[in-house]
Fold this protein.
Amino acid sequence: MKEIFKTFISLIILLILSTLIYLAWIINKGEFTSQYLEKFINDRFKSENFYTSIKNPRINFDKEEMRIIVDGENFNIFSIDEKKISEFKNLKVYINFLPLITKRKLVTNKIEMFEGKIESSSVFSEPLIINSIDLEGNLDLGDKEIIIDKFSTSIKEDFYQGTANLNLKDFKADGVLTKLLRKKIFYNLDLNSENMKFSLDKNSFSIEGDATLGETDVLLKGKKNYIDLSKFVSKYSLSGKIDENAIEKLFKLKATPYIKGPIDFNASYFIFKDNKERIKTSNNLKDVELKIPALNITKYKGTEATADIDFNFSNKKLKEIKIINYKQENKEMKGLVKLSKEFKPYKSLELDLKNNGKKTSIKIIKNKNLNTLDLKGDYLDFSETLKETLIEEQKEDSFLVKLQPVKINLEAKEILVGEEKSIYKVDAILKYENKLFKEAKVYSKLKDEKEFSLTISPKENSRELVINSNDAGLFLRTFSINKSGKEGEFVLHGDYDDTKETHPLTSSVTIRSMRLIKAPTLAKILNLASIGIVSALSGEGILINKLKSEFVLEKGVLNLNKYEAYGPDVGFSNQGNIYLRKKEVDLEGAIIPMVTLNKIIGSIPVLGKILTNERKGIWSFVYTIKGDLDEPEVRVNPIKTITPGFIQKFFSVFKTDKKEEKD
């Protein structure tokens, strides 16, 4: 009886309303207002979970579309405990006229809301500002299902458009976004889509489809969590391809010198309730070229490689990059990069590398006055670093230049210093500042019990350099200075002149008891001069009792002022320039055979002075070494061959002038 009475009353109200609407159409030319209309609308939208409030509703009639328009102001929705869920400045409801007259049924086919705000702490971290909402379809709230043929929503700079089916009984919805535009959704990147499926229930909101993030095409799957926020607030899974240009735009990190080519990626983007975010990525790098000299990583296109990397954010700022694992053939890497506003591009860096089973750890900590770099491990490649800092002109984007001023703590079982050339058991402390090694203490093994030490000590306007080794030949071969030496003792004393912009190094080198073996350039000189000791070079070698050299190294040019060496079989001297950057040589010198015999003859009174030059011996052969540093052109001046010492003073063994060359 109660249900029959409610139905009867509802029909009466509808009949009265339809009559009032009809009269409004005739008398007021399509517009009608009433104090009872406000209550009727509010009661109509009331449910177990929420209720509404609207002010100054008006009724208009659209003769062309044959529908009634209810237009009201200050439309608010409240939860049952009187918390405001949303508010809109204006609401318009479009009702079909014919069903109202013929079936006494309210059939709504369009709803518009303007200038509003939705508040729900369980869904949105802050109030959602809405410009407009436009719904079209079967919107009758009395049905169990509402079919929205078309809806569009403008929220700030974002825009949504699509279709949806709403299940009112189970509070579910699903549909398709035919147009989606979200501005600056992530790191100033826009999200666009024209075919995105979505579903909604009491627990979550899910979305899936093809989209474009910035300039990158992705497959996007997303879920917004409404219930168990301890796991996450939102989660988005993305897959697609990204290149070095997109990485630079996305994370504001310079990638072009190190990465080239597309990366196949799968990423999961998490948003947590404490305003923290995380991106977990799994990347296929097969089509990527990598070149990171500082980490000895070189990868060519087509080589299999993978990388799992996490990105952690706080308050919309990238705070950490965690390298879970990088794999490339026999190379692996793990690490952590911490970022901050104060230090660019990172605050600290920790890397653990493995190459052919050899482990290396790198740790960098940035500080205002002095950065620190800790290098420890089984193996390090310093070949490029040494080349850049000692020979070539310093590049502004080189690893050490960008890190300076820096204190370097170094412990390594092996360090590569050149092509297939290493030093071992290295223990060093260095300070690098203003593109210079200001201080250094280096101790190392060359091989077995062969040692090498280097110190750089600061002085006023200069730096003192001292190098010692108990195997001169091995030291010279290791650092590609001379490939023919064996054994001997090596001592270098030098000073960097820091008053000059080029910081020239003036040094003297003394080598004792070293043997020369093979020595192709020396062999050419001996052959051209017809000195019959060439065979000794292929055996035990030619003994050099003492070698003394004085030079200046500046801008990659080694100016050899003095180079004299002697032994029981031969003595020679050089002077000129070695162009280390161009790998060219321009030297001239003299070679003296049978040094021991010359000394004996030179000791004979009167005859010794006549037949010998004080230093050059009875016979001297002038030669030149020019061209490519590895394979130079060697010439012996025939005019200077077999010349007594007193005549030699007129021709000068060490400096041949152009006039003599023409002769």
